[in-house]
């Protein structure tokens, strides 16, 4: 199942998604860190715009016109009339720089029922994820510390 | 008149020196990773931190493996050093001293890093708890037990 998903054509999408998630994680972590700062307004990446770009990219991958846009039309079994070969932007072009820049959210965006876009449950979910990563890192670092001690004493 | 102790054969000398120098290089790599780890913890970049921990684990495993050479590199060094030639002994001693110094620095950074991470995890958990309590409070204010707003009070 995984193999069918990780095809060469989907690799650029996975790369974009990974980069977006990583940047978003950084922004959300910064929100948590500064949550008590008076006047601080929470920030986020444009999730909906990114999802839209992702949908478009997936559609392109499925449609024949993507082949034209990627100069692989010679691989198509039949020749399409040029009028049908609408040149759509390459997949990478859909993910513009703006999608990876954080934007300030309206005030009280951490409250409940914030126009349906963000809510406290979402923030809690992200924080829980952060705590899980912190706890896992802690466990690993503690066990590595013990191993390091053994290396120093020559017991390892 | 001084008498040189019987010398360990040159093959053993070369091997011992090679192992100790390689061990020093792994210790240097370990220190570099510990420094990057501190910086990632400060930046709260937990996604990259987890990747770095995996790299650190590989270095530590190499170090542990090298430590087992000759049935325990430290013990072997202690038993063999008096039989080494002056030059070889000096080089081995330098490699060991360097490695110990690098490892000691790594240990200090690891300790600081674990403490900093633990503190951040506690802060995030505390914030999560606060949000939980705030949201319980908000939910409670909408219940039948909450005071009714005056303008909705139709009782008189």
Give a structural overview.
The complex is a heterodimer of chains A (156) and B (156). A two-stranded antiparallel sheet of chain A has the order 1-2. Chain A is built from 6 helices and 2 strands. Chain A has 156 residues and is mostly helical. Chain A has 2 domains: 2-116; 119-156. By secondary structure, chain B is mainly α. Chain B has one domain (10-136). Chain B contains 4 helices and no strands. Chain B has helices at residues 10-43, 46-67, 73-80, 86-141. In chain B, helix 1 runs parallel beside helix 4. The longest helix of chain B is centred in the C-terminal third of the chain and has 56 residues, at 86-141.
Topology:
The complex is a heterodimer of chains A (156) and B (156).
Chain A: H1 2-5, H2 11-33, E1 43-44, H3 47-62, H4 65-69, H5 91-94, E2 103-104, H6 120-153
Antiparallel strand pairs in A: 1-2
Chain B: H1 10-43, H2 46-67, H3 73-80, H4 86-141
Major beta sheet summary of chain B: none
Cα end-to-end separation of chain B: 116 Å
Strand order of the largest sheet of chain A: 1-2
Give average pLDDT of chain B, whole number. Answer: 82
Number of domains in the coordinates of chain B?
1
Mean pLDDT of chain A equals 68
Query: In DSSP terms, counting alpha (H) and pi (I) runs of 4 or more, how many helices of chain B?
Result: 4
Tell me the number of structural domains of chain A: 2
Quick take:
Chain A has six helices and two strands, in the order ααβαααβα. With 156 residues, chain A is mostly helical. Chain A folds into two domains: 2-116; 119-156.
């Amino acid at each position: 199942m995984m193999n069918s998903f990780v095809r060469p054509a989907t690799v650029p999408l996975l790369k974009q998604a990974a980069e977006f998630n990583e940047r978003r994680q950084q922004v959300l972590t910064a929100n948590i860190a500064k949550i008590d700062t008076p006047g601080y307004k929470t920030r986020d990446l444009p999730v909906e715009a990114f999802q839209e770009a992702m949908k478009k990219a997936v559609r392109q991958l499925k449609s024949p016109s993507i082949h034209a846009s990627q100069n692989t039309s010679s691989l198509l079994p039949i020749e399409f009339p040029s009028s049908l070969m609408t040149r759509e932007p390459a997949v990478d072009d859909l993910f513009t720089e703006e999608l990876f820049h954080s934007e300030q959210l309206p005030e009280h965006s951490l409250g409940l029922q914030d126009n349906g876009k963000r809510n406290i449950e979402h923030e809690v979910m992200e924080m829980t994820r952060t705590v899980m990563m912190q706890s896992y890192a802690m466990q690993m670092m503690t066990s590595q510390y013990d191993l390091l001690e053994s290396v120093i004493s020559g017991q390892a | 008149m001084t008498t040189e102790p019987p010398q360990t054969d040159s093959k053993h000398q070369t091997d011992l020196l090679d192992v100790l120098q390689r061990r020093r290089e792994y210790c240097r790599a370990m220190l570099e990773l510990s420094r990057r780890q501190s910086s990632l913890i400060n930046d709260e970049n937990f996604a990259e931190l987890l990747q770095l921990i995996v790299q650190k684990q590989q270095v530590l495993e190499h170090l542990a493996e090298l430590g087992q050479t000759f049935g325990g590199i430290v013990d072997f060094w202690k038993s063999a050093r008096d039989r080494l030639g002056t030059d070889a002994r000096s080089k081995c001693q330098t490699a060991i001293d360097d490695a110990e110094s690098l490892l000691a620095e790594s240990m200090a950074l690891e300790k600081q890093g674990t403490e900093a991470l633990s503190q951040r995890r506690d802060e995030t958990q505390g914030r999560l708890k606060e949000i939980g309590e705030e949201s319980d409070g908000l939910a409670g204010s909408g219940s039948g037990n909450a005071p009714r707003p005056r303008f909705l009070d139709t009782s008189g």
